[in-house]
Structures are given as structure tokens and as C-alpha cells.
Amino acid sequence: MAMDFWEAQRKARSRTSLYIATFIFLTVFVAVGIEVVLRASFSDDYHTPIPLFGLIFVVITCGVAAYQYASFSIQGGAYVADSLGAQKVDLHTTDPKKMQLLNIVNEIALAAGINVPPVYVMDNSEINAFAAGTNADNMIITVTTGTLNLLNRDELQGVIAHEVGHIYNQDVKISMQLAAMVMGFYIIFIMGLRILQFAPRTNREEKGGINFFLIAIILLVAGVVTWFFGSILKACVSRQREYLADACAVQFTRNPDGILNALKKIQKSTQRHEMPKEGIAFSHLYFDDYSSFTSLFATHPSLEKRIAAIEGKTYFPTDFDKPQ
Amino acid sequence: MDTTAIILLSLLGLLVVLILWGVGLFNRLVTLKNQVKNAWSQIDVQLQRRYDLIPNLIETVKGYMTYEKGTLESVITARNQASAARESIAKSGGTPTPEDMKTLLVAEASLKSSLPQIFALAEAYPDLKASQNMQILQEELLSTENRIAFARQGYNDQAMIYNTAQQQFPAVLLAAAFGHQHADLYEISDQEAKKPVKVAF
Fold first, then answer.
1. Domains observed in chain B
2. How far is B133 from chain A (nearest CA, A)?
3. In this complex, do A107 and B146 lie within 8 Å of one another by their Cβ atoms?
4. Which residue in the set B135, B136, B143 is minimally distant from A107, CB to CB?
5. Quick check: pTM over 0.95?
């Protein structure tokens, strides 16, 4: 049974909304928590009508996130491709493989109704690809030479359709925004740590002095909690966007076998750790992100789960897998 | 205020509402018509690309296939018919009339049944199969085929939205008066023609 790609897309989209709502709830919940704890601890000195510290928490996280996101967006997709050593494919290339690649990107852009993005090729033996860029003007697609050499036309079309799916759904933007927020939480944690290190300890005993120790602990705890759960939620969103891009690939090509066989080829491939180490910061963008992380923090669902989803089955761990 | 004034004012109000609704409908239909036109132009570009590629293909295989003149001629005839149908649509303002669409579909169907024969025949000529020119042409024709298929999907979606907007009540009362007509879907009924051109690598 082939996948119902409309239903799969709807499911992935609604799960994304759920995770993002949880993310926002987490931020607000911790901000309120800070406020409540502070008011309880300093009931004599701290009773302004506006929730000052809760707001400071939100402003600092969002401020750091906005700065972080702005620097991501300015760089654009070409920056990511350049820093991984990928070369832009010349539109007048005479290399048959690259001509085919450009043709496929044109086909799928037409199917998705988006502008044709620039295409990059990076010299690497593993089968992988990524889309990068935060808005319609700076989106790019990169594939490895391994992808060009090992996949046939239909499989390559499936991979490109998956990447175009990311562009179509603005997934890079979403994951960059979440990453920027998580960075903001991390900064809160660091601030707590620094205050703990450098705050004058004598104040702790003085009556009426500011209890820096308590403030530091509150920031530390708030930072760690939001950073930890924020990272998990960010990974949850990322995995849903992978399912969504797979479903879009089937929608655009109307050929589930293309992407399915590409994933199966990666599964059988012995080269899954070949992407450059300096590119690890961008690994969440890859078509296949093979990580040794536990699945809680993984940016991609396992290949087995993705294959099962495209085949329209439910994934069971191999022990329970019944023969078809 | 007396009763006559109230009645007159209400009638005036009703008239204003009707005119506003009419303007809204007019604009909506124009927008949809232009979207259909744009969607068709996406197909048109690809059809033209295919009709430009076929003479190149014939030119490339002609030297090898001296005994298959009949096949080559039937491809050229089908290509010329389809190309003429495409041009007639382009001249008539961008959206195909039902007659134009029918001519194009018939010509495309015969092209689609004769074109694969060239590739099938090419199998018997290793030199031809290995020539880079032939490989590029095969890839280009295959890609164009895919693009036509994807553009057709977009066109049919737009045409369906446009047709539905015209058929809905009360738009149906005015659509024809505003100069709108049913947009034909680009569908291939012939089962044989539905198969894409098979190209072996």
C-alpha cells in the first residue's frame, strides 16, 4: 500500500504545530516560574506591578534568538554550500550527469511551483543532499557526487523532490528559528553560571542586599530546563519536517519508488559517515543525518521509519517485524 | 422621513450591494482566468521545447537509420501537427478553446505513440546509442516529458478552480456575460498515450 501523502502531510503539519505550541508554552511557563519564585523569595523588596524578571527572561532569550537568526539569514544558503566546499553547477555545463541534475531540479521546481534554486555539487562519496537558505531569494540545493554516481534518475528525482519539499515548506527557516531560540536559552544558562562565578558572595549574608546567589541559581535552572526540553522539541519538529518532506517528494513526483529506493540504497551503503566534520553544524539539513545521538535528540527519523512511512506501513522494531 | 424615501433608499442600498458583488465576481473571474492562462503558458513552453528537440533527434538518427524512413516520417508528421495546434492556441489568446485542445490532444497522442519507436529502433545501433548527442537528446526529451506532466497537473488544478467558480450559483448567471467560458482540462484519454516515452539508459 502506497502512502497517502496528503494525509501524511496533514499529520506532520499538525504535529509541528503541536510541538511549536509546546515550545512557546515552555518559554512562557518558565518565565512565569521565575517570576513566582522571585516574588516568593523576596516578598519584602520585589513587588512591582509588572512582572519584571519574567519579562527580562523573555526579552533576553528572544533578543539573543533574533540576533542569532539574523546572522543565519544574512549568510543565506550559498554560505552553507561554500563552507562545505560545494561548487555551484554552471547552467551551461556539458557534464551529462550535471545536465541531468539541473533538468531534474527544473522539473521538480515546476511541480512544486517554486522558483528554480541554484544547484551545488560537493565532492563526497556518500549519498547525501541538503537544501539551505532562509527565504526564497537565497535558497540553494546541494547534492554530493556520491548521490550523482550511485543513484539512477528516478532515485535522484526523489532526493531532489525531498529537498524541494524542504524549500516549499520553509523548513530551514523553522529549524533555524528554533535553533536560535535554543541558543537564547543556552545564553540564560551561561548568564546564571557567570553570575554564580563572579557575584560578590558577601552580599549573601548582608540583610537587605541583593541575593545574587539565588538569582544565579534561578537563571541556571531556568536555562538548563528550557535548553534541555527546547532541544528535544526542536529535534521533534525536525523529524516531523523530514516526514513532511518525504510526503511532499511523493506528491511532487507521484512516484514513491524513487525516494524509497534512494533511502534503501543509503541503508545498504557502507559509506554513511563521510560528510566533512567541519560541516557537523549543518548536519540537521542533510537528506540523511546519521548521528550516534539517542533518538530523542536525533534530527532525522531512522531510515527504517522513513521507509515504512513511504510504504504506508507502521514501523515496528525488527524483532516484532512480521514477514509480509 | 416618509415611506417612499425609505423604500428608495433601501433599493439604492440593494443596488450598491449588487454592484459591489458584481465587481467582486468580475475581478475574481479575471484573476482565475489569468491563472489558467499562466498555467497553460507553463505547458506551452515545454511543448515548444519538445517540438524543437524532435527535429534535432531526427537529424541525429537520420544518418544511422536509413531503413526506417517510414517511422521517422510519421514522427515528423505528428510533430508538425502538434506544433501547429500549439501555435493556433498561442495565437488565440493563451487559453485553449475546446476545439484547439482536441486537435492538440489527438496530435500529441500520435506523437507519443510514434516517438518511442525511434528509441526502440536506436537499440539496434550501438554507435548511435553510445553517441553523446543521442544521450543528451534522450535526457532532454525525458526531462521535457516530466515537465509537461508536472505542468499539466498545475494547469488542470487551475482550470478546475476556474470552472467551479463559473458554475457556482449565482456566478453562473453572469460568467458568460463577462466573457468567461469553460476551460478544458488537458487530459490524455488514450491509454497508450498515457505511458511516458520510455528511454533506456
1. 3-194 (1.20.1440.20)
2. 10
3. yes
4. B143
5. no
Cell digits of residue A242? 523530514
Q: Are A119 and A102 in contact (CB under 8 A)?
A: yes
Nearest-Cα distance to chain B for A161, in Å, is: 12
Beta bridge partners of A194: none
Q: Do B201 and A103 touch (CB under 8 A)?
A: no
What would the pLDDT profile of A262-321 be if each residue is shown by its tens digit?
A: 999 998 887 666 677 666 667 777 888 766 555 677 888 888 899 999 988 776 655 444
Does the annotation count A163 as an active-site position? yes
> Per DSSP, what are the bridge partners of residue A143?
A121, A129
- What is the domain partition of chain A in residue ranges? 5-84+170-315
Residue A1, C-beta contacts closer than 8 angstroms, at least 6 positions apart:
A311, A312, A313
Cβ contact B82:B90 at 8 Å: no
Return the DSSP state at A115.
P
A107 at interface of B, judged by CB pairs closer than 8 A = yes
Q: Which residue does chain B place closest to A94, by CA atoms?
A: B136
Using CA atoms, how far apart are residues A205 and A227, in angstroms rounded to an integer? 31
Q: For the residues of A212-259, what is the DSSP string, one character each?
A: HHHHHHHHHHHHHHHHHHHHHHHHHHHHHHHHHHHHHHHHHHS-HHHH
pLDDT (tens digit per residue) in A70-92: 888 888 888 888 888 899 999 99
Closest among A59, A292, A57, A284 to A174, alpha carbons compared: A284
Cβ within 8 Å, pair A96-B132: yes
Query: How far out from the chain centre does Cα A202 lie?
Result: 44
ipTM of the complex: 0.71
Q: Which residues of B are less than 8 Å from A152 in CB distance?
A: 201
Cell digits of residue B130 = 553510445
All residues of chain A having their beta carbon less than 8 Å from the beta carbon of residue B135 are: 96
